[in-house]
Write a structure and sequence with these properties.
α3 packs antiparallel against α4. The chain is elongated, with a radius of gyration of 20 Å. It is 28% helix and 19% strand. It has 243 residues and is of the alpha+beta class. The chain has a four-stranded antiparallel β-sheet with strand order 2-3-1-4, with helices on one face. The chain folds into two domains: 97 residues, Alpha-Beta Plaits (2-Layer Sandwich); 129 residues, no CATH class. The two termini are 29 Å apart. 28% of the residues are buried.
Length: 243
C-alpha cells in the first residue's frame, strides 16, 4: 500500500480567485475522476482534499499496488473520466512512500476461494483471499461480468465500517450488533448478494464474514446451510459463513 500524490496541471493558465476555485468545472471533473478511481478500488482513503497552488491541483490518497493506476485496470467509468480530464490537464503522480501498518496485497497466483470481509477503516478492499487472508484489489476481479447494482463492494465496506464504529460508540447496542451478526440483516443480505454474484462469475467459493463477539454464545453451525463453519482463522474470534 502506497501513499501517493497526484498532480493535475491545466493545459492553459487559469485565472482563479480564492472565491471561485471551488466552483470551476475543472475541480468537478477532477473530483469525478478520483471518485471513479475510488469506486473501482484503484485508490482508497481519499483525503477529500484538493490543493490548488501556482496553477496546479494536487490530491492525496493510498493505492494498493505500484501499478494500481495503470490503464489496464480502469473500467469504463474511469476511462470516460480520464478522457474528459486529459482534455484539460496533464496528469502525473508521485509515490510518497509505503504504508507499513496495513496488511500486504494478496500475491497468490490463483486464489481457490474468497471472503467478503471488512477490516474496519484500514481496508482498501473487502475481498480477502481465502488462502493467504490478504486483501485483493477489486479491480482484479471480473467486474465486467457483474451487474452494476452489485458493483457496490466499496459502498458495502463503508456501510460495514460505520455500523461497526457506531456499535462501539453506542456501547455495543443490539441493532448495530445484529446488522453484523445476523445473516438476515440488511447489511448481511447486501454482502451475501455480492458473494453470490461473484461466486457465479468466478466459479469458486465466495464466503461471507459473519461477525461473532467472544462474549456471545457461539453458533455451532452455519445459519444458512447448517454445515460447519468454514474457517476459524479470522480476526476477533470470528468465523466465516458461505453465501
Amino acid at each position: 500500500m502506497y501513499y501517493t500524490k497526484m498532480t493535475f496541471t491545466p493545459l492553459e493558465k487559469l485565472e482563479i480567485s480564492e472565491d471561485s476555485v471551488e466552483d470551476m468545472d475543472i475541480t468537478g471533473i477532477i473530483w469525478g475522476y478520483t471518485g471513479d478511481l475510488l469506486r473501482n478500488g484503484q485508490i482508497y482513503h481519499h483525503d477529500k482534499v484538493l490543493i490548488h497552488n501556482d496553477n496546479v491541483f494536487q490530491a492525496f490518497f493510498f493505492m494498493p499496488e505500484l501499478d494500481s493506476l495503470d490503464e489496464k485496470y480502469c473500467n469504463e467509468y474511469v476511462n470516460r473520466s480520464l478522457v474528459r480530464i486529459k482534455e484539460l490537464c496533464e496528469i502525473s503522480f508521485e509515490v510518497i512512500g509505503r504504508n507499513t501498518i496495513v496488511n500486504p496485497v494478496c500475491s497468490c497466483d490463483d486464489s481457490t476461494w474468497y471472503i467478503l470481509f471488512a477490516l474496519k477503516n484500514d481496508a482498501f478492499s473487502p475481498v480477502v483471499c481465502g488462502d493467504c487472508l490478504n486483501m485483493i484489489p477489486i479491480y482484479k476481479l471480473p467486474r465486467e461480468e457483474i451487474p452494476i447494482k452489485v458493483q457496490s463492494e466499496i459502498g458495502w465496506l463503508a456501510d460495514y465500517y460505520f455500523i461497526d464504529r457506531l456499535w462501539m460508540l453506542c456501547g455495543f447496542d443490539r441493532f448495530t450488533y445484529r446488522q453484523m451478526s445476523d445473516v438476515n440483516s440488511a447489511l448481511s443480505k447486501s454482502g451475501r448478494e455480492i458473494c453470490s454474484t461473484y461466486e457465479n462469475a468466478l466459479d469458486k467459493p465466495f464466503y461471507y464474514f459473519l461477525y461473532h463477539h467472544p462474549s456471545k454464545k457461539v453458533r455451532k453451525t452455519c445459519p444458512v446451510c447448517g454445515g460447519e463453519w468454514h474457517d476459524k482463522r479470522m480476526r476477533r474470534n470470528s468465523t466465516t459463513q458461505e453465501k
